[in-house]
Amino acid sequence: MLSQKEKHQLKQYCDENPHLSILVQHLEDSHRMNLSRISHEIRNPVTIINSFLQLTQKTHPEVSNFGTWKPILENMEYLKQLLSEFSEYNNSNQLHKEIFSLHTFIRTLISDCQTALPMVAFLYEKTSAIPMAAFDKTKLQSAILNIVRNAYEAMGTQTHKQICISLSFDGDYFSIKIANNGIPIPPEHLPHLFEPFTTYKTDGSGLGLAIVRNIVLAHNGTITVLSSKEETSFTIQLPLQYD
């Protein structure tokens, strides 16, 4: 897997050599197709095994009392989640853009999050006029919800849970900042947060923030994170686009 420095160097080479850029794109497409095939081949037996487990529990309910049964089901759910996130990661840079209002989009998203997480105080601030622009709405929603989910988990059992989302536009770039008052991220973890299969959670897949980063990069944007005792914030910057 290429490091961020190597990816940056490769991009520079591709910018200088259009033929190399085409070859790299073909390699990426081939790599993505291979990953899709692998995921498909794994998903088939997983689906069959899961069906057998459900049938076994239905016809022999006594298995629920076995000490090994609950861990089996929990690991099956984790495997299904991992396959789902793997597929999402593999397709995270395939965009289907449409023109819409980021302001309306985020307000609706916050309303949905508030309904799902009533124990969290969601705050929203729009600090400038927001023009219409073209983005992949589904992918962008996935990215923001991923960050919100991480924020919620970071707040743990604390009494006052707060997530603040702000939106601004400087004439060239939209800025979406998502901040929470949860436990700060250790400084040594920050450089590796967006690397695939890197996780600091006991039950994490290590793909969530990697998916977020891929989605942002596919929109030619950037994402940064800052963390202190006061707040942890993820800031997504997206260029103005109409197609």
Describe this structure in words.
With 243 residues, the protein is an alpha+beta fold. The protein contains 6 helices and 7 strands, in the order αααβαββαββαββ. It folds into 2 domains: 4-90, no CATH class; 98-239, Heat Shock Protein 90 (2-Layer Sandwich), CATH 3.30.565. The protein has helices spanning 4-16, 18-59, 69-90, 102-116, 137-154, 208-218, and strands at residues 98-100, 120-126, 133-135, 161-169, 173-180, 222-227, 232-239. The strands form 2 sheets. It has a 5-stranded mixed beta sheet, covered by helices on one side. Strands 1-3 form a two-stranded antiparallel sheet. A hairpin with a 3-residue loop joins strand 4 and strand 5. The mean pLDDT is 86.
Question: Biggest sheet, open or closed, and with what strands and sense?
Answer: 5 strands, mixed
Number of domains: 2
Architecture (CATH level 2) name of the largest domain = 2-Layer Sandwich
Strand content: 15-25%
Number of strands: 7
Distance between the termini: 31 Å
Radius of gyration of CA atoms, rounded to a whole number: 21 Å
Structural class: alpha+beta
State the name of the first-level CATH class of the largest domain: Alpha Beta
**CA-based shape:** globular
Strands of the largest sheet, in order across it?
Answer: 2-4-5-7-6
SSE ordering: HHHEHEEHEEHEE
In short:
The protein has 243 residues and is of the alpha+beta class.
Record keyword descriptors for this entry.
five-stranded mixed β-sheet; two-stranded antiparallel ribbon; 243 residues; 2 domains; alpha+beta
Write the layout of secondary structure elements.
Layout: H1 4-16, H2 18-59, H3 69-90, E1 98-100, H4 102-116, E2 120-126, E3 133-135, H5 137-154, E4 161-169, E5 173-180, H6 208-218, E6 222-227, E7 232-239
